[in-house]
Amino acid sequence: QLISFVVHLPLALALLLSTSPYGSAFSSSPPPAPPLLPTNPDDVIRQAANSIAKAYTQDGINLQSIRIPLSESIYGDKEEGFVADRAIGWQGGPQETYRYLSPLVSNLLKQIKITDNTGGLVVKVSEQILLDFDGSALQTSEHPAGPLYDIQALLQPNTDGYYLKTIEAVEEQFSNTDGKSKRLFLLVNPAWRDRSSWGFFGGKKAQELIFNRYETTYAIDQFVVRGRKVSLLKCWSDDWVVFVGSDKVPSFPGERVATFPARPEYKDIDAALAKHAG
Predict the structure, then answer these.
(1) Whole-model pTM above 0.85?
(2) How far is CA 206 from CA 196, 197, 263, in A?
(3) How far from chain centre, in Å, is Cα 192?
(4) Predicted confidence (pLDDT) per residue in 174-186, tens digit
(5) Helix, strand, coil percent content, the chain, rounded in steps of 5
(6) Cα–Cα distances in Å, from 227 out to 130, 219, 243, 278?
(7) Which tens digit of pLDDT belongs to each residue from 27-38?
């Protein structure tokens, strides 16, 4: 009987933990910490790469839309400390922003980890300029583990019908080819906000092709509300988080003031700031 008891002890203990009110305390891990607002472009890229990889490898989302802030990359090294904040909401024309966005996205594609099988080799990234006056381009990462792990990213598409055709072509030839595994395709810093950006004629097509299918897996939007610098952060699969800058400590990235399950509208952010201040 002693031998039988010893052999079955692990099973008995497992049953005890599964039925005991204390069982979950032993078996479950603590909830993940909420995302923090990154403080520099390198941290942004690392955080974005993790979010994109998580959405693709864990949830199978291969069509993704992301937004990367550029004001700090463009103006952060200027002598005037306030320039980067002043640039929020305006970061130059598309050709200017492309010069800063292109190397960031190239670095991003190299850091998106969707497999550990690299054989000690590095990811290679190439770029095709699409419309120079739009500052648009298509980047492709070639993974040493094979074409299944390649990624494509469309930079700065706008509401011209050309980009609807381009997205359809990339899906057909790369990301969603019939009979093949789905590969990762990113829309990076698109010029639209929602269906209304496309106007009456393009809205229906954009809704069907983009808004109903592409998931925002990473975004940082920055603007000024009530005279305060506000950052809106989305990391997959967390809620949207509202951060407000500090007047007393300008170098402090931001204090978390509210979270929302969907991207909040301006009035929601304004109400959250008023509640936080009051």
Answers:
(1) no
(2) 10, 10, 19
(3) 16
(4) 999 999 999 999 9
(5) 45, 20, 35
(6) 38, 22, 14, 15
(7) 456 666 778 999
Q: Which helix (H) or strand (E) holds 168?
A: helix 161-170
In the block, residue with structure tokens 């993940």: 32
Cα-based angle 234, 237, 238 (whole degrees, multiple of 5)? 55
Q: How far apart are CA 91 and CA 47, in angstroms?
A: 22
Own/partner long-range contacts of 106-111 (Cβ < 8 Å, ≥24 apart): 106/139, 107/45, 108/45, 108/48, 108/49, 108/52, 108/68, 108/153, 109/139, 109/141, 109/151, 109/153, 110/141, 111/45, 111/46, 111/49
Q: Which residues pair with 273 in a beta bridge?
A: none
> Which DSSP state fits 149?
G
State CA 241 to chain mean position distance.
Answer: 13
CB-based contact 63:75 (threshold 8 Å) = no
Give the helix/strand (H/E) hosting 186. strand 184-188
Q: 165: which residues sit within 8 A by CB, 6+ positions away?
A: none
Residues 6+ apart with CB under 8 A from 200: none
